[in-house]
Amino acid sequence: MSTAPAAPGDDSRTDPGGSGASSDSGSSDGGRDGTSRGDGGGFGPGAALAGEAARFARLGWMRATSGNLSVVVGRDPLRILVTASGLDKGALTAADAVEVDDAGAPTHVGGAPTDAGGSPTDAGGTPTDAGGTRATGGAPRRPSAEAVLHARLIGLTGAGAVVHLHTVASVLAADRFPTGLVLRDHEMLKALGRAADGDLVRLPVVANSQDMAVLAGRVAAAWEPLTPAVLVARHGMYVWGADLLAARHRAEAVEWLCEWAVRTAERTIG
Ligand SMILES: CSC[C@@H](O)[C@@H](O)C(=O)COP(=O)(O)O
Ligand SMILES: [Zn+2]
C-alpha cells in the first residue's frame, strides 16, 4: 500500500536530517531540528517560516505581501518548504507554505501527487486538473512566485534556508552601487562569515526581472561562494544560510551594511 502524501503544511512530515540543522549560529529558537516554534504556532518548518516571516514583517521588511522564505526539509531528493504566494507575510500560519522540488515546482498539488513537471496527477500518474496546492482542509495555496529562485540558490549553495526581503536599504544600496557594494573593515562582516579586518567583501547586484528563469540565471551568475547574499536592483535582497536562524542573522547584517553604505554615501558624496 502506498503512503498518502503529506499536506504541504503538515509539520509532522519534517525530515530533521534535511532541515539545515547544522547552523553556523545555532538552531532556531531552541528547536533541535533547526525548525523551531514560530509565531504561527506549533513546531516544524511551516511554523518556523511563519514565525520568521512575522518577525521580518514587524521590521517592515515584508510589506504589502512582499518577500518570501524557504527552508530545506529533505535532501534526497531535495525538498524545500517555501512560503505561499500573495499572502500577508506578517500573518502566516504553519499551513501557509508549499513544498517544492529542486526546480521550485510543487510536490503536492491539491493534496495529490504530481508529475515531474509539478502538474497534478491521479494515483496512477494520469494528469488531473486540480487547481493548486491545498493544505489539509484549507484554501488552495501556490508556492511563492520566486520559488524557482529559492530552489536554484539552494541547489547552488547547499544552503538550508533562503530569505528574500524587500528592505528599503537594500534597494537604495543597489541603486547607489549598481556594480556591487564593496565593503571592508566592519565588525558586522563577521555576521556574514567574513573577517572584520582587511577582508574585501562585495555584495553582488543584479538587475530585476519579472521572468523568474531570467532572474534566477542572473543570481546564479552573480553569487559569490564566500558571500551569502545578492542584491536585486529595485527589488530587494536574497540571503541564505545553513538554517533559518543563520539566514536571518545574515539578512540583518546585510541590511545594516546597506544602510551604513547608503547613509555614508549621502554624507560624503551628497
Ligand atoms: C509586493 S508584490 C512582490 C512580489 O512580486 C514578489 O517580489 C515577492 O517578494 C512576493 O511574492 P510571493 O509570490 O508572495 O512570494
Ligand atoms: Zn520579491
UniProtKB/TrEMBL annotation:
Enzyme class: lyase
UniProt KW Transmembrane keyword: no
EC number: 4.2.1.109
UniProt entry keywords in alphabetical sequence: Amino-acid biosynthesis, Lyase, Metal-binding, Methionine biosynthesis, Zinc
GO BP terms: L-methionine salvage from methylthioadenosine
Cofactor note: Binds 1 zinc ion per subunit.
Pathway: Amino-acid biosynthesis; L-methionine biosynthesis via salvage pathway; L-methionine from S-methyl-5-thio-alpha-D-ribose 1-phosphate: step 2/6
GO molecular function per UniProt: methylthioribulose 1-phosphate dehydratase activity; zinc ion binding
Annotated spans, Disordered: 1-46, 103-142
Catalytic function, reaction form: 5-(methylsulfanyl)-D-ribulose 1-phosphate = 5-methylsulfanyl-2,3-dioxopentyl phosphate + H2O
Organism phylogeny: Bacteria, Bacillati, Actinomycetota, Actinomycetes, Frankiales
Cofactor(s) demanded: Zn(2+)
Residues bound to Zn(2+): 164, 166
Gene that specifies this protein: mtnB
Described function: Catalyzes the dehydration of methylthioribulose-1-phosphate (MTRu-1-P) into 2,3-diketo-5-methylthiopentyl-1-phosphate (DK-MTP-1-P).
HAMAP family with a match to the protein in the record: Salvage_MtnB
Record's protein name: Methylthioribulose-1-phosphate dehydratase
Pfam family, one: Aldolase_II
A GO CC annotation given for this chain: cytoplasm
Positions with biased composition (Low complexity): 120-142
Family under the similarity heading: Belongs to the aldolase class II family. MtnB subfamily.
Position of the signal peptide: none
InterPro entries per record: Aldolase_II/adducin_N, Aldolase_II/adducin_N_sf, MethylthioRu-1-P_deHdtase_MtnB
Domain (Class II aldolase/adducin N-terminal): residue spans on this chain: 47-262
SMART domains xref list: Aldolase_II (SM01007)
